Please model this.
Amino acid sequence: MLPKAKLWLGLVVAAFTLFSTNLQAAWELNMTQGVTQISRDTYDLHMQILWWCVAIGVVVFGVMLWSIINHRKSKGAVSATFHESTKVEIIWTVIPFVILILMAIPATRVLTEAYDSSESEIDIQVIGYQWRWEYKYMREDANDEEVSFFSVMSTSREEISNDLPKQEHYLLDVDNPLVIPINKKVRFLVTANDVIHAWWVPAFAVKKDAIPGFINEAWTIVEEPGVYRGQCAELCGLDHGFMPIVVHAVEQEEYEAWYAQKQEAARVTREMANNVVTMDESMANGADIYNRNCVACHQAAGTGLPPAFPALAGSDVVNGDLRANIDLLINGVPGTAMAAYGRQLNPIELAAVVTYIRNSFGNTTGDLVQPADVNTILQEAQ
Amino acid sequence: MSAAHDDHHHGPAKGISRWLFTTNHKDIGSLYLWFSFAMFLLGGTFAMVIRAELFQPGLQLVDPNFFNQMTTMHGLIMVFGAVMPAFVGLANWMIPMMIGAPDMALPRMNNWSFWILPFAFAMLSATLFMEAGAPNFGWTFYAPLSTTYAPETVTFFIFAVHIMGASSIMGSINIIATILNMRAPGMTLMKMPLFVWTWLITAYLLIAVMPVLAGVVTMMLFDIHFGTSFFNAAGGGDPVLFQHVFWFFGHPEVYIMILPAFGIVSAIIPTFARKRLFGYDSMVYATASIAFLSFIVWAHHMFTVGMPIAGELFFMYATMLIAVPTGVKVFNWVATMFRGSMTFETPMLFAIAFVVLFTMGGFTGLMLAITPADFQYHDTYFVVAHFHYVLVPGAVFSIMAAVYYWLPKWTGYMYDETLGKLHFWLSFIGVNILFFPQHFLGLAGMPRRIPDYALQFADFNWISSVGGFLFGASQLILLVVVIKCVKGGKKATAQVWEGAQGLEWTVDSPAPYHTFATPPDPKLIHAQ
Model:
């Protein structure tokens, strides 16, 4: 090899090394290989079809470039007169067809595997809401304490508005991640409560639309413990960009401990619903809940985004009858983006957020709502 | 009154009435093209807002609601306002001149089909200034986001779509009637230029699918205002039905925006290679095959909705098949260039860039057809990169190639070649900086239609935005070139291009207001 060529080769190798190590996080070029058999198979399919395309591209664009360089009038090229050839036409119809068959075979195999959601060991219902996810673990025994919770983005609005520095997992962090055990077949039953969303975790190669009125199935067997992040993939309105998915894949024992602790927490919450809360507690708790659940539409200062999203500051509902205000929060407003929070928040949270909005943004009703009162209304509704 | 005598001196009327009441195919063609360029700038402005917001992570310029309005309006304006009317404009100008007809078959309807368009787009654009804001549910307007959860202005959107559909259907009927009835003696179907062939097939596609689009928006209208539940699960309806109906329109629509481009490129490459088009017959059959296949692949846009596996496989195989006729076309163009005698004026540069970059969009299309891989690509920037490659350096470049190619015939003057080449190179470089990094963004996991993104996507996003600003600004050069060329310049000959073939090059430049009032000499009509 000539010294000059060696130098170039060295530079290219150095450039590639630099690219693939130091800058990998920021300059990710390719699909993830993921942590499941299906995600690796999908990656292989992706690379296989990519290389076919590259090969075809090199041949076709090569011939074209060669013609452009050599068959130009300025070089004295005289045009040939041929304009058809059945033989050539048949060849370049048949060869692509054969390549397609070679691609279709592995694609069919992987798709068949990805569609086999039978014999799952854990079933989790995944429900999309504007703009959060609910995870509900299917119980083996109806008497067990149910584990179900909402998962809301925990990145603060100040980071989004550039008033605070952005943290490492900007827009990709949630308050309550989904927790699943590794090496177990976990089935997701995906649906939605309002508009269409899509539940996507690239490392699992799972993307399924969450459609109101439908239950779609997807599954995964995660092989490595870790934190895996994804996002909603179907435009679902205002905060489509702000409903991330975080999955913790953990060892079986850790999963069991987490599950038991969640059950215990649910029991405690139910009991605490009878405790009496103070104004200060409620305002602090309410502000937190408001900032996670309400702020996208009603805005930090309660100004809303009229006309679709009404202001809470000075609102007739918020300053009017308390019972009507609680009812609206519990049942939502059908046909609008105002969701029914009776199922999304627990009585303590519902009470706190009502107290908060009735005593913030210039609203001064002085009302302090007790969880027990909300609980009574919830039970009446049932 | 001597009507026959008047006809010989019949020129354009004076002032605004020339344009309002014209039934002349050349005037209406010009109206369509100017309208299309105005919409291209408007939709492009929306794209600049999108790219400016995405220049950095965080929300800088617009709120998420307005961002969603921008993505929606950008898509609608570009598809229905820029690309489609541009092709109709080219059809109006060129089809009668290419087949030796004096005008379009239905000239009054021609006037009507253009003049309803400004009203449709005025109505659609006016929603930006209304309290509820413009449509914000994406140009694919999936229910129930576009029905139960839509801003009130959705009704204006629905009526605007109805008017656009009516315009397209009238335009298509006119084109079919013209091509089938008004060809000069000797212009058999298999002697028609490919631009005429591709438009004939496109017009049939339009007639087939525009009523489907009208149907789906009407169902939305009923869901919103009259209490039906076509797409409302709570009322027994089916949100997925919306997607099936929409994409039964939407996929052929994709080919409506690319088949005429194939025709344009098939005219330009032989001209500047000074060699007959390779495989004319196979080009016609490939176009017809693509049109047929376009009706049976719609659900490849919906691989993640949870169809049964048999459906997924059918739509995967059918979609992959499209690669065969599309490949034939690309191979034919390359074979036409092979052993030609090429020169590289601006139309040829745009045509060559079309072949290369459209083919790259075709490659990613093939990748997207592989269903399991599509689960990873779906609704990411990989898809955004894919369809912008086929639509911008695909459809839009072909329109620019056509404008440069026929501009001397329209104005009678040669355009400024230096400025033309500058426009080409800036567009070519800009469009690749704009869209190529979006492949990486999508593969790395960035969903489309988000106003803000995680930090790992920051670098490719600012690069893409820089490319976007470059590409956007470069389009103003086209405006300068066209205005300069309309005003004057070097006189164009009737032939214009040394290697050009076809009836349009047998009439003077600029083309007289009325051409082929008597049919051309059949000896002028050659096999393509």
The two ends of chain B are 44 Å apart (CA to CA). Confidence is low (pLDDT under 50) at residues 1-7 of chain B. Chain B touches chain A through 99 residues (CB under 8 Å).
